[in-house]
């Protein structure tokens, strides 16, 4: 707030495909699909039409108790059909953070319902981002998001994102009988684009299974094509107990998220009379948001974007690798999903070649990227072309050059 209050605001007025326009009439390539979510690109009339007709038919109605609506039922069925989860059920929410709260509460209540109220501990990974609601802030793998808010939710811990051994040691330190769930993004997104080491998730899934720990995939960024499939985690050949999704499910045309829950985790709430899950929000199952998601899924399927994204991933990786030799660049992380990170060297940062400076320069040159501490990240819409990827990476290079030159 302090940093942006005085200056002019970057006012986005229009968007179409991979392009944005500001209130000065200047055009920008949306290299981040807004905040990792606009998978099908901007300005899709088909989604706008679906929203419009749903608004006229039934704009909104609660799904508490036995209330339901057609779009929520259809969307839940379509998601369940595609999810790599055994005997799946779907709980809808309004976004990613809300879904994390839902999954964490479901995990703890599942264990309490099964006679193990002591199983409350939640383990997550360094760099993992799980939204900024209560429990999500508690399990986030980046300390800076936690400080200043007083005590967080109890019984959480964070382990190195790339170490099965560390996870195993932590499980034994806590006592497996006290651990409710393990949260992981298939590829860490907001924390800097870190793909798992080879075999990581197979070993993690086995470890969780051995100790009865629920494995929760936070697929908020990785779903709906970004990793070439529906929920991201399929890429690693494992079946989680729950999958948290949001963002790409509606490409952000309207806010939506949810949790796919295995039949086993859902069972106590289905099978034990009186074991009511007192959890849910006003706009859960919002029919107009669900109509937007259905139209978005139609586009993903009709345009074969899950497969197309694998080519986009390859092109983006190839183009970004060309930056590895840049003197300001320490590392390029890409090649698993339509996302990438360009990590700056410590010396470059100390010399003033910072991620925010590169972000600002690229935006001045017509490409939207995202700055995180020490790196510039990108996650374009899945419809980006090879030429547009080349334009994006060339602009990133010229921005690095310009900022380096200014830094002397
Ligand atoms: C992996 C992951 N989980 C959860 C969230 C939180 O989603 P929301 O911002 O919709 O609450 C995000 C948001 O970026 C995310 O990237």
TrEMBL record:
CDD domains: OAT_like (cd00610)
Pfam families on file: Aminotran_3 (PF00202)
SUPFAM superfamilies on file: PLP-dependent transferases (SSF53383)
InterPro entries, alphabetized: Aminotrans_3 (IPR005814), PyrdxlP-dep_Trfase (IPR015424), PyrdxlP-dep_Trfase_major (IPR015421), PyrdxlP-dep_Trfase_small (IPR015422)
GO terms for MF: transaminase activity
Keywords assigned by UniProt, alphabetized: Aminotransferase, Pyridoxal phosphate, Transferase
Source taxon at top rank: Bacteria
UniProt-listed PANTHER family: AMINOTRANSFERASE (PTHR43094), AMINOTRANSFERASE CLASS-III (PTHR43094:SF1)
Homology family: Belongs to the class-III pyridoxal-phosphate-dependent aminotransferase family.
Protein name: Aminotransferase class III-fold pyridoxal phosphate-dependent enzyme
Source organism of this protein record: Lipingzhangella rawalii
């Amino acid at each position: 707030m302090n940093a942006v209050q005085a200056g002019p605001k970057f006012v986005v007025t229009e968007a179409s495909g991979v392009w944005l326009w500001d209130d000065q009439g200047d055009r920008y390539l949306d290299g981040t699909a807004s905040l990792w979510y606009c998978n099908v690109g901007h300005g899709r009339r088909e989604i706008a039409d679906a929203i419009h007709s749903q608004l006229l038919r039934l704009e909104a109605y609660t799904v508490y108790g036995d209330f339901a609506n057609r779009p929520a039922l259809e969307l839940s069925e379509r998601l369940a059909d595609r999810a790599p989860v055994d005997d799946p059920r779907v709980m809808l929410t309004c976004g990613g953070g809300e879904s994390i709260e839902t999954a964490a509460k479901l995990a703890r209540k599942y264990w309490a319902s099964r006679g193990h109220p002591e199983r409350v501990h939640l383990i997550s990974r360094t760099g993992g981002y799980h939204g900024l609601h209560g429990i999500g802030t508690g399990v986030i793998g980046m300390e800076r998001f936690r400080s200043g808010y007083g005590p967080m939710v109890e019984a959480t811990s964070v382990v190195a994102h790339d170490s099965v051994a560390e996870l195993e040691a932590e499980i034994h330190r806590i006592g497996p009988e006290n651990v409710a769930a393990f949260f992981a993004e298939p590829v860490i997104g907001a924390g800097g684009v870190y793909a798992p080491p080879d075999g990581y998730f197979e070993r993690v899934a086995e470890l969780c299974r051995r100790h009865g720990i629920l494995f929760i995939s936070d697929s908020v960024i990785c779903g709906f094509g970004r990793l070439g499939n529906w929920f991201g985690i399929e890429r690693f050949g494992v079946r989680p107990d729950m999958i948290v999704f949001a963002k790409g499910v509606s490409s952000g045309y309207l806010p939506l998220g949810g949790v796919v829950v295995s039949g086993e985790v859902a069972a106590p709430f289905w099978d034990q009379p009186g074991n009511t899950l007192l959890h849910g929000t006003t706009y859960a199952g919002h029919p107009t948001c669900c109509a937007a998601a259905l139209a978005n899924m139609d586009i993903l399927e009709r345009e074969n974007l899950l497969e197309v994204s694998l080519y986009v991933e390859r092109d983006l990786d190839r183009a970004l690798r060309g930056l590895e030799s840049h003197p300001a660049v320490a590392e390029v992380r890409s090649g698993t999903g339509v996302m990438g990170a360009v990590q700056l060297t410590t010396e470059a940062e100390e010399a003033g070649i910072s991620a925010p400076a590169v972000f600002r320069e690229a935006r001045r040159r017509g490409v939207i990227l995202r700055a995180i501490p020490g790196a510039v990240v990108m996650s374009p819409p899945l419809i980006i072309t090879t030429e547009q990827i080349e334009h994006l990476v060339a602009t990133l290079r010229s921005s690095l050059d310009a900022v380096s030159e200014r830094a002397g």
